[in-house]
Design brief:
The complex is a heterodimer. By secondary structure, chain A is α/β, with parallel strands linked by helices. Chain A has one domain: 3-Layer(aba) Sandwich (Rossmann fold). Chain A is 34% helix and 11% strand. Chain A contains 8 helices and 5 strands, in the order H-H-H-E-H-H-E-H-E-H-E-H-E. A 5-stranded parallel sheet of chain A has the order 1-2-3-5-4, with helices on both faces. In chain A, helix 3 runs parallel beside helix 4, helix 3 packs across helix 8 and helix 5 runs parallel beside helix 6. The longest helix of chain A is centred in the first third of the chain and has 17 residues. By secondary structure, chain B is α/β, with parallel strands linked by helices. Chain B has 2 domains: 156 residues, Rossmann fold; 122 residues, 3-Layer(aba) Sandwich (Rossmann fold), CATH 3.40.50. Chain B is 36% helix and 21% strand. In chain B, strands 2-1-3-4-6-5-10 form a 7-stranded mixed sheet, with helices on both faces. Classes of the chains: A alpha/beta, B alpha/beta. The interface between A and B is medium-sized, with 33 and 31 residues. Chain B: It comes from Kitasatospora phosalacinea.
């Protein structure tokens, strides 16, 4: 199910030894991902794409904190692309942390889900790109989000639905924030998914220390207590993210806690 | 009252949905502990499609939304308080906003367990759903109607369907057609119209036995059968609504249906104020003025 474009990129990564992805943070890839029929943009292009929405080089912390995790997922982990956006066998990525969606839109545009030009319209009346994503408007968006604490329960249901249809291949991913994790609905989902061993469910928690009362002992401990497989990594280190995203976790759901600089540092 | 056991609406729900789960691999049942006793066989036969999330009602609706996103037809069930009120934002966002369908089936909506008190009463459930677009609302008055309406709701593509089951019921089933009001008794051309919803029919028929009224029966209240209401009118557009949930829930619908006519509407139902008494269903219906005697007095006063 892998698209041609992804295979080309995978080959490129292998040739480079898979070490220079995170060197590109802040821009240094020099167009390494160019030349894919105008559809593909690279990691180095993302700040420019975000600037199309932000209007200047000021990026909101929420957009920054998710950028690397989103990029590694869409570039190297998720088996989904513009051509398979409706395929039953596709991997699902649910953006639960729906505020600060600029990084998400930038990655979707970079991956060709919709034209880069659309980014200019961010937040405009007729734009499909709102300040919170709407799945009925944004090509490639699996859910509409913005109100916190809805993505994990929806992801649980998605994993259940795929399993019930015998679709054991697709992975279901959901991205939440550490402050979003305050919402009790997440804890309903974490406990249930752990109890029933929902193996195809994966969560990414972007931990920028923004939860008002914090998470004593770390967020991963909350998942581990419910039987999840866990990994906590540097949320800007592409190789760490990739390894954590692809770690085997037989019989259990898996969470990757991606730590980034504190929002109020 | 019956010499042989007739199924309750909840038992009928168990039998009907067990059959539908066996027949249609798209269907999935999501429970939050309540109601699991109705589905032992289905849970064994379809472990991937009968899911009990435990006492987690936000997850109940969220998981239903996720199931629907994968193309399944989810049926979610618990008491109305915990199906509609507690996870109301999930109903709004995880179903309606995502653009997916589901069948929500409640029990114990208004006064089914009076001894349980306010925590287990949700007479505002239908009014709450009225704040959201797209909901079809069914209020069966008999287990056989529940069977028919459940089958209809599950089969209705990817629409949003709410089926409100109750321990309160009428003695006999009506030949209901989903979405249409049924004329049960025809008055003269000068008669007013009483619309009885679901379990209120028997009391309405008893209350109006000596009155010249047309009695309509609604087992589906949303969409509201405005044409059916207008067709039942004689020379006067005087209407009484008798609903087994919050009084006035359908009043706006009635006014809209009669907007082109000079008309009067009286809305009877469960009062807004908390009723801090326990006891039985008949005691509560009497206290709300929804028994035959109470209905007779208020209908007669309004229509004469």
């Amino acid at each position: 199910m892998t698209s041609d474009t992804t295979e080309v990129r995978g080959a490129t990564r292998t040739a480079r030894g898979g070490h220079d992805d995170h060197d590109g943070h802040g821009g240094g890839h020099g167009g390494g991902y160019g030349g894919h029929g105008g559809r593909g943009a690279g990691y180095a292009d993302l700040p420019g794409l975000i600037a199309l929405m932000a209007g200047d080089e000021k990026h909101s912390p929420a957009a920054h904190s998710t950028l690397d995790a989103l990029w590694v997922l869409y570039d190297r982990v998720l088996d989904v692309g513009p051509g398979t956006a409706d395929a039953p066998e596709r991997d699902r990525f649910l953006l639960s942390k729906g505020h600060g969606p600029m990084a998400y839109y930038a990655v979707l545009a970079a991956k060709g889900f919709f034209p880069v030009e659309l980014l200019h319209s961010f937040g405009a009346y007729d734009s499909p790109l709102g300040h919170h994503p709407d799945r009925l408007l944004v090509p490639g968006a699996e859910i509409g989000s913005g109100s916190l604490g809805h993505g994990l329960p929806l992801a649980v249901g998605t994993a259940l639905g795929l399993r019930a249809q015998g679709l054991d291949g697709p992975a279901v991913w959901v991205l939440v924030g550490d402050a979003e994790f305050d919402e009790g609905s997440n804890h309903e989902a974490v406990a249930f998914a752990g109890a029933v061993g929902l193996e195809r469910l994966h969560a990414v928690v972007i931990d920028n220390s923004s939860a008002t009362h914090g998470w004593r002992g770390g967020i991963a401990a909350r998942f581990a207590a419910e039987g999840w497989s866990t990994a906590t990594v540097d949320g800007h280190d592409h190789e760490q993210l990739y390894r954590a995203f692809t770690a085997p976790h037989p019989g259990r759901p898996h969470v990757v806690v991606a730590r980034t600089e504190p929002k109020h540092g | 009252m019956q010499s042989t056991h007739e199924p309750t609406m909840r038992e009928q729900f168990g039998a009907t949905v067990t059959e539908l789960l066996g027949r249609d691999p798209r269907t999935a049942l999501v429970l939050a502990d309540i109601g699991t006793a109705q589905f032992p066989e289905a849970a064994r036969a379809h472990p991937d499609r009968v899911v009990n999330v435990g006492i987690r009602e936000q997850l109940l609706i969220g998981a239903a939304g996720g199931l629907a996103l994968t193309g399944m037809r989810p049926i979610a069930h618990t008491f109305a308080s915990f199906l509609i009120e507690r996870p109301f934002e999930q109903v709004k966002l995880d179903l309606v906003h995502q653009g997916v369908g589901a069948v929500l089936v409640s029990a114990a909506g208004s006064y089914d367990w009076p001894a349980g008190g306010r925590t287990h009463m949700a007479p505002g459930d239908v009014a709450l759903l009225d704040t959201l677009p797209g909901w079809h609302v069914h209020v069966p008055g008999h287990p056989a109607e529940a069977d028919l309406l459940l089958r209809h709701a599950v089969a209705a593509d990817d629409t949003l369907q709410y089926v409100r089951l109750s321990a309160h019921r009428n003695a006999v089933a009506q030949p209901v057609v989903p979405g249409e009001f049924l004329t049960v008794r025809r008055g003269s051309r000068l008669a007013g119209v009483v619309l009885a919803v679901g379990p209120m029919l028997d009391a309405v028929l008893a209350a109006t036995e000596t009155l010249d009224v047309t009695v309509l029966y609604a087992a589906t209240v949303r969409p509201f059968d405005a044409a059916g209401l207008r067709a039942a009118l004689g020379e006067r557009a005087d209407v009484v609504l008798v609903e087994p949930y919050l009084a006035g829930t359908s009043e706006r619908e009635a006014h809209r249906a009669l907007a082109e006519l000079p008309h009067r509407v009286l809305s009877l139902g469960v009062p807004l104020a908390e009723h801090r008494h326990y006891g039985s269903i008949p005691e509560h219906l009497a206290a709300y003025g929804l028994d035959a005697a109470g209905l007779h007095a208020r209908i007669a006063e309004h229509l004469w």
